Amino acid sequence: MRLEGVWLRYHRRGPWVLRETDVRIGPGEVAVVLGRNGVGKSTLLQLAAGVLRPTRGRVVDRPAVVGWVPERFPADQPFTVGAYLTAIGRVAGLSGPAADRAVRQWVDRLGLTRFHGARLPQLSKGTAQKVGLAQALLRPPGLLVLDEPWEGLDVAARELVPEVVDEVLADGGTVLVSDHRGETVRLPGARQWTVADGTVTEERPSADAAVAVVELAVPAAGVVAAVARLRAEGHHVLRVRDYVAPPSAARPDPGLPAGSAPPPAARPDSGVPAGSPRPPVTGPGPVPEEAR
User: Fold this and answer.
1) 2: which strand partners?
2) What's the distance, CA 182 to chain centroid?
3) How is domain 2-203 classified at the CATH fold level?
4) Is 109 helix (H, G, I), strand (E, B) or coil?
5) CB-based contacts of 131: which residues, under 8 Å, 6+ apart?
């Protein structure tokens, strides 16, 4: 998909929100749109999704199926969650049975089961945002556009957003997402588009950025909270595994000369050879972490 020479303003004599925008993104790619509030991030996303038409220029090769999640889901509608999602599924081209299956899948996955019969105006902002996410995914999108998708979501739902992005990319889809919470660390490998002064530029990642791997052991009952806290602080959690205690150093190796100290043992699954120096911990950038 390409935005070619795109300009946009909301009124004929109003200021230009975006000027001479030329960006492109291909299947299997994700771009994060960054910038201060009010600079035009949402405008760019709406142009990409087809919600807005350019004042000048054009959008080319937009996928046929677009999933659009606005920053604030319009919950002031006289429908129940189930009825709304079923109707959206039919509008998206799903048959009745297929729409019912898709609704059940996303209602269950997003923890909306107990709200199935609730009316949209009765929902909290976070729950309404889950409905907005569900409606965009009822039919697998070729382009998924997410405007501040983490806003108002609980911990479990925030963890689900990167999973959904990965699934869309794995199916050959494209993802655009805006972010002002620093959640971009949840999308490793994402391209970065910055909107400022009406223009869009792509930031190239620094090849010199130092990254270290640090292993942590936390109590089993605190794993979920620890992972959430680490990610909220900007770290990338590689995986969670069972703890393997290192071998005891109290028993000397009978093959060592008297008075010699045994060499340092390699940590389980660390990939660090015995005796190698441990890498430094760097901050405040995206330092990958391993919780218990």
Assistant:
1) 24, 60
2) 11
3) Rossmann fold (3.40.50)
4) helix
5) 73, 75, 81, 84, 85, 112, 115, 120, 123
Query: Which of the 8 DSSP states describes residue 14?
Result: S
Q: Which two tokens stand for residue 219?
A: 């109590």
Give residues with Cβ within 8 angstroms of 278, minimum separation 6: 272
- Chain region(s) in the chain for CATH 3.40.50.300: 2-203
- What tokens appear for 258 in the block? 């008297």
Laid out side by side, the sheet with 56-60 consists of 18-24, 2-8, 56-60
| Residue 259 main-chain phi, psi, to 5 deg | 85, -5
Q: Are 132 and 69 in contact (CB under 8 A)?
A: yes
pLDDT digits (tens, 9 = 90+) for 129-142: 999 999 999 999 99
**What would the pLDDT profile of 55-103 be if each residue is shown by its tens digit?**
999 999 999 999 999 988 898 999 999 999 999 999 999 999 999 999 9
Q: Which residues of the chain have pLDDT under 50?
A: 207-208, 210, 249-256, 258-292
pTM of the predicted structure, to 2 decimals: 0.69
Q: What is the distance between the alpha carbons of residues 41 and 51, in angstroms, rounded to a whole number?
A: 14
**In whole angstroms, what is the distance from residue 76 CA to residue 132 CA?**
13
